[in-house]
Every structure is written in C-alpha cells, then in structure tokens.
Design a protein that fits this description.
Order of helices and strands: EEHEEEEEHHEEEEEEEHHEEEHE
CATH architecture of the largest domain: 2-Layer Sandwich
Largest sheet: 5 strands, antiparallel
Structural class: alpha+beta
Helix content: 10-25%
Number of helices: 6
C-alpha cells in the first residue's frame, strides 16, 4: 500500500520524552521526539510525512535496549498496544502486528489450541523486537514459524516479504535498509488433543532462575557457540559484581540489574568490564544482545 503525507496524524507526538519511562532498565535520557500511533494506517501516514534525514528508533517494551544518558537525537516510534491486531486467517496462518507483546501471542495461541508458541511467554518484548533479533527462549526461536512478514518502509509503504529474503541467525536478522517489521504471519500446528499448554511450567522455570521484578534488559550477552554466557561470567567471579550502582545479578549472571541511582553509563561500563574480563580469562569474545543507542553526557 502506498500512502501520501497529506492526511493529519491521529497518534500522540511528544517532545523531549524521558526514555527512562519506556525502557526495562528504567534508564535513558530524553528522546527529541516520541510518537505513539493509533494503528498501522496512522503509522503509515506519520512515516510518509517524516523528514528523510531524521534518525528513527523503534521501541516495544523497552527490553534489550540501553539508551545513553544524553538521550536520543531523533524520532522514537512506539507501536506497543497500538499495532496489536492478532487474528487467525482463513488459510490457517496467524496474523500478528508488531506491537503485540510476546506474552499476549503465547496466550492467544493457548486459547486457540495452537502448538509451538508457548516459549513466547518467556520473552519480555513485542513481536516486532522478536522478529528483529530472532528472539528465543526455552529452545524455541521466533523465525522457526514465520511464513511471511509485512515490512513498513521510510515512506510508510507496506511490503510483504518471505523468510528467504532475510539473513536469519542466532539472535540476528539482517534487515533491508530503511524497512521495519509491521506484522508477521506465522504457521502453527494444532495442539494434539489432551496435550496441555506448557506456559505455566515455563514461567515457573523463568521465575526460579531469573531476577524477575528487578530492572534489567533480559539477557545481556549472546551465548557463544557451545558455551553459556552466564556460566562464563560466574566462573570469572563476576556474579554480584558492581560498577557504580549497576550490578551483575546474583540470581542469573547474564543479567545486569539497575536501581534508582544507576546511570546508563554505569551499565555500559559494566558491560565493557564483563566483556574484557571474559576475553582475558577465557579467550572468549562475548557479543552483547542489548542494543546501545543515543549520546553520552
């Protein structure tokens, strides 16, 4: 669908919006501009009228994201709870817009008797973010069930693409330039009769092993091939280690916890210290899952 920019937008546009209100670490300086669309069509019109030279940052639940203390010089787009349509199509595919939370998708599939989506209950983000990084949990990965995606480009046009058009790897997806995920179509099998959902068990497992309820971004580092980042960090003696008021979780060493005194620079410095320590002690290069954006103070 092609759009023109001659229609008024209907969403909410804010200026100098503190990103600490929108990230799971509760950190980050102000974004120059922050837009919440009312739906996908409104987002198309907003993008069609946006200046071509402004940087764009998409945000869902704000996990897996560190915004530096100086904030973000550009336009933030926040589709959470606005791009939220989720429905079964007549052809059996499941259509899900990118602002839908992963937890909501898991519950929808549970109610519809669809199998294979329980792992989404353990991902603290939106479908857009899950698609962008091939998010996974409990052995499941997002792109294992993707049949088609709907991209939105810089001009607000929608483009349908197949998985074959993307470079998909562990916690990485190569994206076309100036295109972002608007929606996806998933193919899921029907759950076998009498087989219960595994969501409750998976959430109990997550709560028992991760610092749920404390400010974090989820897992900070990708697991190196054949290894676990948390085990390496714990073996290096860094469990509970703090820089400033950013601390490695005592419960799960691949989580960094913040509090009301923590700055984004504390977290970024701790990420660097962990990476350097693991490289020095074990010769392993840890790659961060978390995306770091914005300007330092």
């Amino acid at each position: 669908m092609n759009v023109a920019s001659n229609r008024s937008i209907k969403g909410k546009l804010m200026f100098d919006e503190p990103m600490s209100k929108h990230t799971s670490w509760r950190l980050g300086g102000p974004a120059d501009r922050y837009y919440i669309p009312v739906d996908l069509v409104d987002l198309q019109y907003f993008l069609a009228g946006l200046e071509q030279d402004i940087d764009i940052l998409w945000i869902g639940l704000g996990s897996n994201l560190l915004v530096r203390d100086g904030g973000f010089r550009g336009q933030v787009i926040a589709p959470l709870n606005s791009l939220k349509e989720i429905r079964l199509q007549p052809d059996g595919l499941l259509y899900v817009e990118s602002g839908t939370s992963c937890a909501k998708l898991a519950k929808f599939c549970q109610k519809q008797g669809l199998d294979g989506a329980d792992f989404f209950a353990g991902i603290p983000g939106t479908i857009g973010g899950a698609l962008a990084m091939n998010a996974g949990a409990f052995g499941g990965e997002t792109w294992s069930m993707v049949e088609q995606v709907v991209m939105i480009d810089r001009a607000g046009n929608l483009v349908e693409r197949s998985p074959a058009e993307f470079e998909v790897d562990y916690r990485h997806v190569g994206l076309p330039q100036q295109e972002w995920f608007a929606a996806a179509r998933f193919r899921l099998a029907a759950r076998a009769p009498g087989v219960p959902s595994n969501i409750r068990h998976l959430l109990q497992q997550r709560n028992a092993t991760q610092p749920i309820g404390l400010p974090s971004c989820g897992s900070v580092f990708k697991n190196p091939e054949g290894k676990h980042a948390a085990q390496l960090i714990e073996a290096a003696g860094l469990k509970g280690y703090c820089l400033g008021s950013a601390c490695v979780s005592e419960k799960h060493a691949n989580f960094i916890i913040s509090n009301s005194d923590t700055t984004a620079s504390d977290v970024e410095a701790l990420i660097g210290h962990i990476r350097d320590t693991i490289a020095s002690q074990f010769g392993v290069s840890l790659e961060a899952e978390v995306r770091i954006v914005g300007e330092a103070l």
